[in-house]
UniProtKB/TrEMBL annotation, chain A:
Protein name (Swiss-Prot/TrEMBL): Molybdate ABC transporter substrate-binding protein
Binding-site positions, molybdate: 15, 42, 155
Subunit organization: The complex is composed of two ATP-binding proteins (ModC), two transmembrane proteins (ModB) and a solute-binding protein (ModA).
Gene3D superfamilies for the chain: Periplasmic binding protein-like II
Any Gene Ontology biological process: molybdate ion transport
Organism encoding this protein: Shewanella maritima
SUPFAM superfamilies: Periplasmic binding protein-like II
Alphabetical list of InterPro entries matching this protein: AvModA-like_subst-bd, ModA, ModA/WtpA
Keyword Cell membrane: no
Record family assignment: Belongs to the bacterial solute-binding protein ModA family.
From TrEMBL, chain B:
Superkingdom of the organism of origin: Bacteria
Location in the cell: Cell inner membrane; Cell membrane
One GO cellular component term: plasma membrane
Lineage: Bacteria, Pseudomonadati, Pseudomonadota, Gammaproteobacteria, Alteromonadales
Name of the coding gene: modB
InterPro entries linked: MetI-like, MetI-like_sf, ModB_ABC
Family: Belongs to the binding-protein-dependent transport system permease family. CysTW subfamily.
Protein name as catalogued: Molybdenum transport system permease
Membrane topology: Multi-pass membrane protein
NCBIfam families in alphabetical order: modB_ABC
Main location: membrane
Entry's transmembrane regions: 12-32, 44-63, 83-103, 144-171, 191-214
Amino acid sequence: MASAKDVPAIAAASSIKFALDDIAKQFSQDTGKRVRISYGSSGNFVAQIKHGAPFELFLSADRRYTQQLEQAGFTQGDGDIYALGKLVLAAPKNSPLQLDEQLNGVKALLASGKLSRFTIANPEHAPYGERARQVLQQLSLWQDIQPQLIYGENVSQAAQFALSGSTQGGIVALSLASAPRFKARANYIEIPQQYYQPLAQKMVLTKKAGDTAKAFYSYLQSDAAQAIFEQYGFGKGGN
Amino acid sequence: MDWEALTLSIKLSCYTVLFLIPLSIIAGRALAYGRFKGKSWVEALIMVPLVLPPTVIGYYLLVGLGSQSLIGSWVEQVFGQQLVFHFSGLVIASMLVNIPFAMQPIQRAFESIPADIRDAAACCGMSRWTTFIKVELPMVWPGVLTAFVLCFSHVLGEFGVVLMLGGSIAGETKTISIAIYDSVQAFDFDAAGVMSLILLLFAISALALTTSLSRRLGGQHERRSR
């Protein structure tokens, strides 16, 4: 394929939207090459790639999903961890929810019957939702909070619910909560990592990957890209 | 504002009506005049996309047209291009989804042609084909126009099927409704607001235009038939 026409489609977990948009812009400036990024939930992307979606690179929110693809024979190699994802407890600015690391505010609000809606990403197919469930289980909130839970289709939608004012709060990705558009409408506090398994965000090239996709893959491991990931609250990648 | 997505949606609408309207004229006429066993089942089948959730249609298409399916792998072998997550797949999907919107108004228009007009044409020695072109088509024109506008606007707003089948790839399957969804998820409510407003205005003008046009055309027929 001619390099001018080689604009690979890339599937990326919605948790890295803001960071990856910045990195892709930087990549275009540095190399003159372009990529097309689709954002969504990692689980859905695995299903789509298995059904023949033309994505050349898949940036998952968790290593489990790249492994599924690898085992099904859709990838080149086993991929690399590009960043470590973190969780926050977030609440819209007018919310009665008090933010604290142990989620005592959530417990108190739940006990007083004033917590009507609390959002997390769908734990069935979104890694951030799965980790949010872990946090709620660790802090013995999972059973009691069930009737109040609103699931986002992915962590981006959960974050949008968490700032919209129709929920009292939620557990979402730090990388989204630290974006200016989020901060303008909601507050957040980081949840200590002892309450959940780290989100080793892994990427992998698919069998369809061309030169530009491969170049972008390497670029994501460069210092320039890693600095942008860190700016959005991600921990350092590497194996 | 995502102009690429808007252009793509308009392109999808154009392709859909281009293929679907001629088919619907043929099929709508056949259904209007045909008397055969199981006609109500055929009509029910045509109406199904109206009541089925788009996710169900999307799922069937994903499985039915995917690389592992019979149709999907055949198309891939012959044309070297897969259907799902590709523009061509969206065209097929939106044709299927829009069958009721195209068929209904056209079939009703054929049914509303009085039998004596067709008899008169036959008495005058007109062939079936001439009758179709010179008598029937001008009379069903308002129905065809309604079908055209309904399909065009409906494709522009189609969401569920595109989400399941498209994968939101810029310039290929990321239509305007998906772009709106994406920008809401990116907390970009300004962009979502602008794009939604454009779609809303388009929908209202399209409907107003059809109503007034078909009223005017309908009026002509009434005067002519008097």
